[in-house]
Amino acid sequence: MKRLAEKHGVPPENVVLEDQARTTYENAINARLLLQPLQPKSVFIITSAYHMRRARLIFERLFQQSFPHVEYLSVPDDFETPEERTSIEDVERWLMGQVEQHLSCYRN
């Protein structure tokens, strides 16, 4: 995900990747610890649609006091269906389009 963001022009210092957790709860705790010193204006939580409900419940609980604005983006599960084998490039374009759409709300 970090490489994808950087490939699409997001500065490396603006991408925080937590890759040590074994559970969604650990992921939220570790991400909060990584992000707090940076004091970001907004945070994007990106996961598959399958995992989004659980991720959102946990991250909302752990992030609500620390971060003023959290966006949740889920990658549709149908990107992974064998019948419509979608290329990684298609997924990248879709995902970065979603991020751009969300970011445009914060631009003047």
Secondary structure layout plus pairing:
Elements: H1 2-7, H2 24-35, E1 43-48, H3 49-63, E2 70-75, H4 88-104
Parallel strand pairs: 1-2
Helix pairs in contact: 2-3
Summary of the model, kept short:
The protein has 108 residues and is mainly alpha-helical.
Please, could you describe this protein's structure?
The chain is mainly α and 108 residues long. 46% of the residues lie in helices and 11% in strands. It has 4 helices and 2 strands; from the N terminus they run ααβαβα. The protein has a two-stranded parallel ribbon. α2 crosses α3 (49-63). It is globular. 6% of the residues are buried.
List keywords for this structure.
globular, two-stranded parallel ribbon, mainly alpha, 108 residues, 46% helix
Measured between the Cα atoms of the first and last residue, the distance is 27 Å
Strand residue content: 5-15%
The strands making up the biggest β-sheet line up spatially as 1-2
Q: How large is the count of helical segments?
A: 4
- Helical percent range? 40-55%
